[in-house]
Design a protein that fits this description.
With 59 residues, the chain is mostly helical. It contains three helices and no strands.
Length: 59
């Protein structure tokens, strides 16, 4: 059983997550890759310098 039903979000939305990391200048909690502000932007949708809109295709 090695078939992947769905790719992990880190792979599916790799470009969006990378754009958020590059644009993120806010303080991050220990062991976090993104600040809380960027997490909200990812979950709720928003823009960055690298992408005009995050998760516009997310359903």
């Amino acid at each position: 059983m090695s078939d992947v039903i769905r790719q992990p979000v880190e792979i599916t939305y790799q470009a969006e997550l990378e754009a958020l990391r590059e644009d993120d200048s806010a303080k991050k909690p220990e062991n976090w890759s993104l600040s809380p502000q960027s997490v909200v932007k990812y979950l709720m949708g928003g823009g960055t310098a690298g992408l005009s809109h995050i998760n516009q295709l997310k359903s």
